[in-house]
Amino acid sequence: MNALLLIDIQKDFLPGGSLEVPEGDRIIPAVNEIQEYFDIVVATQDWHPEDHGSFASNHPGKQPGDRIELDGVEQILWPDHCIQETEGADFADDLKMDRVEKIIRKGTDPLVDSYSGFYDNQHKRATGLHEYLREKEVDTVTIVGLAADVCVRYTALDALELGYKVFLVRNATRAVGGGEVLEDTLRELREKGVGMVESSGIKDMFNGS
Ligand code: VGL
Ligand code: ZN
Fold it and tell me: What is the rounded distance in angstroms from the CA atom of residue 166 to the CA atom of residue 144?
């Protein structure tokens, strides 16, 4: 079975959001178009409590971009984003959701961030995504979403480590660090074993598989 993972396609990560990813909105048409070619579609949702330790606002004197130690691991500080039950945490208005079978919420523990859709950043607690995919006998995951250099990257690396065959749709992701960071991230992931595909090639890859 092949699954499509929609990573954090949420309002706060779109242009105008509190942690905007440049051109983040441009991925949505491609993400919508390819969904029908997958057996299963799963979405992750960054879902932070107000007092989350990754927010610069919770560390007096600190600014977004500063690095701190959070419960023993290095943490980059971000602007407040994707706070539970706020509009910024909602999925993008134009995102097709009717094929999404499962939503995995992450980043709920104030003391540890969770970039990957599979595990928190300390690799201690699983989100339930791996268990869900295993139950459905998924062996291939294709990843799209935001941000390429943060949550998409960590999700792809964990997926490889867990033994999935992993593809990334190049035109359906963008980096919070911009275009050059996007190219660097894609190169790194390709070298590590992630297959790079375009949304226009998905139909032929998976149709009738
Ligand atoms: C993300 C930074 C902080 C992401 C989430 O979804 O890529 N980035 N939280
Ligand atoms: Zn976050």
Answer: 11
Query: Does the annotation count 151 as an active-site position?
Result: yes
What are the residues whose beta carbons fall under 8 Å from the beta carbon of 142, sequence distance 6 or more? 2, 3, 4, 5, 34, 38, 166, 167, 168, 169, 197, 202
For the chain, list the domains and their CATH numbers.
2-49+88-206 (3.40.50.850)
For the segment 169-196, the average pLDDT, to the nearest whole number, is: 98
**Helical spans, DSSP H, in 35-178:** 129-135, 153-161
Using CA atoms, how far apart are residues 19 and 153, in angstroms rounded to an integer?
17
What pLDDT sits at residue 209? 53
> Is 82 a known active-site residue?
no
The whole-angstrom separation of Cα 62 and Cα 176 is 20
Mutate to test the pocket of ligand 1, among 12, 44, 46 (most ligand atoms within 8 A of CB): 46
Return the residue whose CA atom lies nearest to atom 4 of ligand 1: 151
User: Distance between the two ends of the chain, CA-based, in angstroms?
Assistant: 8
pLDDT reported for residue 154 = 98
Give the pLDDT confidence score for residue 206 in this predicted structure: 84
pLDDT at 76: 97
CB 146 less than 6 A from any atom of ligand 1 = yes
